[in-house]
Amino acid sequence: MTVSTTPATSRAISVEINGDTVEREVPASRLLVHFLRDDLDLTGTHVGCDTGSCGACTVLVDGLAVKSCSILAVQADGASVRTVEGLASDDGELTALQQSFKDCHALQCGYCTPGMLMSATALLERNPHPSEADVKLALQGNICRCTGYWNIIEAVVAVGQGGAA
User: Fold this and answer.
1) CA max distance for the chain
2) Residue 70 burial class via C-beta count within 10 angstroms: exposed 0-12, middle 13-18, buried 19 and up
3) Number of folded domains in the chain?
4) Domain closes at, from 43, 66, 86
């Protein structure tokens, strides 16, 4: 019997993305962020640094905020992935968090916004009434180069206090 020592160059995966099951053959080395953006055209997930430092590529994997540039697509096999495109309802109605970002002017250039929204969504799903300190801790892996963070923190806290529409 001969055992192959060469790694597989591609692998079939099945991932639930924003509620829909996607089955694809992907290169074993394909990052989840590139699978989402390039293969599935879910370009709301941004590529900022490709090193896991900025958080622009944050998505939810089985409910946990994960930087999609730091895991392989094959690692998401069998998982449920939610991207920023999966937040608003099919009719385009914003979530309370998205509305609060709008109302609190929690974005400027918008590049970090998808990652911030996904990290904040994960926080609010496990802690519906976070304190300012909770929000700061949950968002610490997300970098914003424009707003100075205050309006983002205010937007997330407002949702927890019922201040968002």
Assistant:
1) 66
2) middle
3) 2
4) 86
At position 55, the amino acid (one-letter code) is G
Residues 82 and 100 grouped into a single domain: no
For residues 109 and 149, membership in a common domain is answered with yes
The two tokens of residue 10 are 């591609």
pLDDT for the residue numbered 50: 78
pLDDT of residue 62: 98
73 assigned to some structural domain = yes
The predicted-structure confidence for 105-138, as pLDDT tens digits, reads as follows 998 888 999 999 999 999 999 999 999 999 999 9
Structural domain range at position 147? 96-160
Q: What is the per-residue pLDDT for 90?
A: 86
d(CA 93, CA 143): 27
